[in-house]
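Hi team, as promised in this morning's meeting, here are the two structures we talked about. I've kept the exact order from the run log so nobody has to guess. The first one is mostly here for context; it's the second one we should focus on when we meet again. Sequence first, then the predicted structure tokens.
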Amino acid sequence: PLYAWGGVLIIESLRAPTARCSVGAGVAAGLAFLFKKQAVMLAPLAVIAWILTRRWRWSGATGRTVIGWVLGAGLAAAPMVVFYGARGQLTPLLEGLVPISKVGAYATAMENGPPVNLAVLVAQVMAQLAQTFPLLCAAMCVTLVGTVWRPAIVEDPPGARGLSRVVALWIACSWLAGGLGGGRFYGHYLIQCLPALCLSVAFLNWEGCLGRNDGGRIGRLVLAAVLAAGAYQLVEVAAGKGDRYRGVKVRHLQDGRTAPEAVGAFIAARTSADDTIMVWGWTAWPVYYWANRRAPTRVYKALGSLTQFNTNTAFSRGGPTPFVPGPLAEEVQAAFEGGRPPAFFVLSPSFTSTFANDRDPLESFEGLVRLLQRDYRPVATFGDLTVLQRVPG
């Protein structure tokens, strides 16, 4: 929602400027970035849109609007800056908000992955987007053909041509966000395209699409694509597969909960607020949230800290992610050997089921494996997650 509000308010502050709108755009965009780094694509959207709309002489393309954006972004970050600054921890905060070294390592890990053909990758991502949101992508085609690059045959509503181009720019920025850090384009990144795709429906221009000077041939092809997309979506819904995006990311149990949600409830009922837990594997990451429990150390994700980064993409399995011994592994092992070790350890098979590992890198973490075998016992399984509880004494 914050990403959607950020994009909409950026466009609105350029179209009909007010101080409230421009500052609100900065606040929404700033908060979106704090929650998810891919929201950084709102920055190039704002810059490019400002340059374009200044050429088009939009009333909001002024320095005052930019100042409002920057002020709003500062307000979004202010509470965290004050909180961490009062504790002398501004450097860790900055490293967390702008993790250049981590992002660099995440991106360069792809050098060990499979070779990528750029043209094939573009085609795969476009097909992925169309398959996930077929009707909205068809509507976007109507917008593009009918308004963005059509010859000026029919009269546009005031500002519609420029607005639709800015919305198309937002779609492009959101689409590129899925490739940040190595071009992985995972299916669950597609949700970032949804606000701009929905907004493109506001600029459907059948008259422009069908009235082009090519005799309407392209327009008729687009109309056929829209009808085909509608039929495809109806078939998907009838087959129980209409919620394709949800199926990409979320795996539900029979009671409707996700596995991490069920594990979180299980752990929360058996621990106190000052107890800690540790999870291992990608699909277990949300357990921290659902259990409302912290990790015993700063290492709450093994991937990229206790192992190498993954090299798989939405379209390839990638290479292995071996265990990385060193100070971080020693810190985690020390927490399990300390006076108050984690109450639970949650194991996900994602290192072997999702990433290209013949064996889980946990098996190479011999010190932790020894402690888990000695002090922990499996007590429950929810979906693909196995819950190990520490045995008293």
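And here is the second protein, the one for discussion:
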Amino acid sequence: MRRTLGTLLAAAAAVAAVVVLKTSGQPAAAQAGDSLGRDLAAYGRACADAASTECAAMHGAMRAELLMALNTVAAARDERGVATALEALDLDGEPAIHVAACRILAQFPERPGVMARMRALLAADSPEVQRAAAGVLESSRDRGDQRLARQWQDNHQGGGGSPYRRQPAVDLGALGFKPYPGAQRFAPGDAQSAAGFTTTDAVERVIAFYAAGAPPLDAAGFRARAARARQRPGREAPALDAASQADMAEMRRLGEEFQRTKDMALLRRLTELGQRLGDVGRKAAAQAEKAHEQSGGGVLATYHLPGNDDESPTRTARFVLADQRGTRVVRLVVAYREEALGRTVLQLVWDPEIVGGLAPKRR
């Protein structure tokens, strides 16, 4: 790692020196080169013992210099920095460097190997590295790459943060899902109330794992079911039954008679009928509210497959309505073939109003 960082710094600084030479002249470029040589020599001496405090400090200094060199190359839009930027992606545990490398690669997306590395970076543990990779993929000429980029961007709204912030972990058991054996996280499929994964298994095998005998839906069947679910009933209470209607009629008759006679016995009877009708009304309202909560779209009203109808997600997608409250689907399993990755994508989606306030746990 130490030699790789130093080698990359030398390579990036060499390109940056060309930029300095163009903009500031030979003396400035020579001075930068001399300074780099001294820094690399000091780095080598300090890190003879890789566990030392001095080595850790020098490593931080080298990281800062490499970031500066990569940013200088990116600002100059110099294509000679592409090879170094690709090599920088091999550094482990250096998300800030990965983001800086992506700034260079975003300017030359058609260079060989760039898009393959960006697809791999979508699995990075840093959401900011994922964001940078999605930005590069967005400029690809390949529809699959563009689809992955749009899916990530649609599911990750809001501004950026520190590249050292890690991908949130999700407790699937707490959310009521079984983890799929051997599945890998798929960041474009993550959202506020969804967790994405990929596997080499076929769509049919993934669906069978979750179906538990329930027939899965294809994309057309899912859309038809979702359209019905969006027709959510209101909270209106049902009509009164015959007994309650009779009570209402009696109350009207007794009320008219009480106006004429002022008989207190009639008033007591009116009060009794009013209380009985009130109990019926409250019970009916509670039933209507429960029916309202257990109907409607749930996850069906909000979930959308990535891409268009002629693209692989829609053509291969299968859905399992894994859990329902009445007619409201609160847990959904989606599996489809993503040809851009050559893998099956699995999305586990939950209704945050019902399942939980169960937010993904952060490490």
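Starting points for discussion:
The longest helix spans residues 264-293.
The two ends are 25 Å apart (CA to CA).
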